[in-house]
Amino acid sequence: MPGAAIQTVLLLKMENTRIDSAAAATPEVRISALELPAPGFERFTFPRYRALLAGTEAPETMHERIAVGARLGDAPVGLAFYSRAFEDGAKRRLLSVMVSPLLRRHGYASRMLALGEALAVARGAQVLTATHSSQMPAVTAYEALIRSAAWSAPAEFEYRLAGKASWALQAAQDWAPFLARLETRGYGSTPWGEISQGDRERIAQMVESELPEADRQFEPFTPEKKVGLLPDLSLLLRRRGEIVGWILASQGAMPGSVYYSSGYVVHSVRRAGWLVGGVREVCQRQAERLGGDTLSVFETSPKNNEMRRFMDRQLKPYSVWTDIRYTSEKQIGATHGEATTAPVASA
Ligand SMILES: CC(C)(COP(=O)(O)OP(=O)(O)OC[C@H]1O[C@@H](n2cnc3c(N)ncnc32)[C@H](O)[C@@H]1OP(=O)(O)O)[C@@H](O)C(=O)NCCC(=O)NCCS
């Protein structure tokens, strides 16, 4: 039909006009690998990585990281930042990806991720991983971006809840009758920094021969649990002097926050209030030592239904925020000598 043909030509002309004028008005955005440090790009990542990018903190391993930048003329307008390689060089983590708000939905993040992947493959990586929080402001955009770049669907891996440490003082009043009952049933505790050699041996014996197989992951003396451990804010829990559990605290990633990443109580005292009592006590210690406004953050696997129920029932009324953290990954390199079949994001 001739009418339809004319309409198509007109539309094409209009489309060309729009693209031409846009191209004339906007300098080209260039995507390239960055040499680190790369001052100017730090505002396109989380505060905790800014010193690395800016070069105010420069570890010797700086060159092992990967950074891809977007520039409009000379001005930084976006960044994709990756961790050093881990697991024998096979994996890297995408730490952050961000594009200046006015330049979003032009494909720049996709292009940065494509170049980041190519660089990671060239340095031997086979898998990229990334984590994000349900609290992140641009969560929909980020999830859509990694979906379009053929990453795996995000899977829940951590449930977190944070409250100001002063909640423990309020809870001491709200829970007064319950805490008094706990006391009469023999509740007691010892700060981690004051536990004796005998206590250590007793814990080792419990882990070795009394804890069910599935509970051995709660062993408190593993090297990972020692990293950043705060002995003053960690507690051994007792019933009439006998060790019945522990709560471990470590330095939180956010300034002024303490992570209570491990809380364990033996089966014979479960549902009897020991964890509630212990959690309240460590937070009171935190409020006294670090201030009532510092954050106490609790985390658990979303599959740990018992802990999640405990957090929701007992702690949520005092929380400042809760979130779910997700993990996603992408196969990018040859695995076991075979070429990957995973699609590669288009540049
Ligand atoms: C997430 C972010 C990096 C995407 O940057 P971008 O340059 O706009 O992304 P792209 O243009 O390359 O988008 C690629 C694809 O992702 C999807 N996408 C990106 N933003 C989207 C949005 N707001 N809504 C829906 N889909 C979106 C689309 O499928 C898009 O392709 P399309 O435009 O052809 O439909 C950007 O929104 C951002 O900087 N957000 C703030 C920082 C952030 O939260 N980063 C993630 C955690 S570190």
Question: Would you kindly provide a brief summary of this structure?
Answer:
By secondary structure, this protein is α+β, with helices and mostly antiparallel strands. It has ten helices and twelve strands.
Topology:
Blueprint: H1 2-25, E1 29-33, H2 47-54, E2 66-72, E3 75-82, E4 91-99, H3 108-122, E5 127-133, H4 139-148, E6 155-164, H5 167-174, H6 176-184, E7 187-191, H7 197-210, H8 223-226, E8 235-239, E9 242-251, E10 257-265, H9 274-290, E11 295-300, H10 305-315, E12 321-331
Parallel strand pairs: 4-5, 10-11
Antiparallel strand pairs: 1-2, 2-3, 3-4, 5-12, 6-11, 6-12, 7-8, 8-9, 9-10
Bound molecules: coenzyme A (COA).
Residues 96-99, 104-110, 132, 136, 138, 140-142, 144-145, 148 line the site of coenzyme A (COA).
Descriptive keywords:
alpha+beta; disordered C terminus; elongated; single chain; Aminopeptidase; disordered N terminus; binds coenzyme A; 2 domains; twelve-stranded mixed sheet; 12 strands; 347 residues
Describe it.
The protein is an alpha+beta fold. The protein folds into 2 domains: 2-125, Gcn5-related N-acetyltransferase (GNAT) (Aminopeptidase); 166-293, Aminopeptidase (3-Layer(aba) Sandwich), CATH 3.40.630.30. The chain has helices spanning 2-25, 47-54, 108-122, 139-148, 167-174, 176-184, 197-210, 223-226, 274-290, 305-315; strands at 29-33, 66-72, 75-82, 91-99, 127-133, 155-164, 187-191, 235-239, 242-251, 257-265, 295-300, 321-331. Strands 1-2-3-4-5-12-6-11-10-9-8-7 form a 12-stranded mixed beta sheet, sandwiched between helices. The longest helix is centred in the first third of the chain and has 24 residues, at 2-25. The radius of gyration is 26 Å and the shape is elongated. Mean pLDDT is 87; it is low at 1-24 and 336-347. Coenzyme A binds at residues 96-99, 104-110, 132, 136, 138, 140-142, 144-145, 148.
